[in-house]
Amino acid sequence: MRFRLWAGITLGISGMVALAVVVPAAAASSTPEARFMAWKPGTPLPKTAPGMVWLAESPGNVLVKLKPGQMVPLVAPSKGVPNKAGYVDLVEDPVVVHGSDPGSCVRIVHKDLGAKATSIASTWMTRNKLSTVVTYTEGSGSTLGIGFSWTGKKGSFSLDGSDSVSSAWTEYYPTVHGPNFTVWQTFFDYDEMKSSCGQHDIVGVAYAGGQWKWRPKKAPKMSKCEPQLAHSAVRADSTRAETFSGGFTVPALGFTGTAQTGWSTDTSVWYGWGVSGHVCGSSGYPPESPIVLAN
Fold first, then answer.
1. What is the pLDDT of residues 143-187, one digit of tens each?
2. Which of 54, 57, 35 is nearest to 43 (CA)?
3. Which of these, 105, 116, 199, lies nearest to 156 by C-alpha position?
4. What gap in Å lies between CA 109 and CA 69, rounded to an integer?
5. Is the CB of residue 70 less than 8 Å from the CB of residue 58?
6. CA-CA distance, 159 to 146, in Å (whole number)?
7. β-bridge partners, 247
8. How far apart are alpha carbons 203 and 43 in whole angstroms?
9. pLDDT digits (tens, 9 = 90+) for 62-78
């Protein structure tokens, strides 16, 4: 299971007790360090430092009776659920309120939302004897929008920042021939994270692999076009791909997030012309544009 600190640090949990320090990002030197311990229900809770509280966290299969990532403020000993060894993992965390320094907030998995189709590229061909291939290479980074809500209720999430997730292998998409408009997708795993400050976030956490696509009805308007010879080809691999405003959707929470992929010399869109034609860019000359069209 993954534990994610607000500042972006990811911790792996493999044993009974998590070893980490949670301190405010802006005032680390003046805030007491968090303590982690295994606590036996029915025994007195240790005293906390001023401004701190005890929280019970669920590290994967250790706290088997808690929901994945559930955080339980230990107001009473009955709030803690023991593992098979009879212990509860505790973390001493700063008391926080809405609007406080986010560096003091711990984010953990509240719900696994599963893998969602996420847009990574689009190709546009307006006539016959044109072809295109998309390659999404291992290590390619996709920037995925983060959904934010104070309540976690469906429809309450709004776009608030982004996070980057890298692909774990290479996807070779099929060759298609014009005329054809396609948005190409792969799958990323998304979690709903809950913070000790009270907020909920929808976050892309891992690459899931796989391929999907959908077909737009109209091509975007082009800015500049240049001639292309018959039996020629181009590969767009040095520009930044377009930002998809509807890059992925989480229907269960009513959220649609953005997605953007950075091209490299290995991750690319390739176009080929069987006859002479044109290559066009959406916002200037084709090499400068996030969207390229062949006609």
1. 999 999 999 999 999 998 888 888 889 999 999 999 999 999 999
2. 54
3. 199
4. 4
5. yes
6. 6
7. none
8. 37
9. 333 334 444 444 333 33
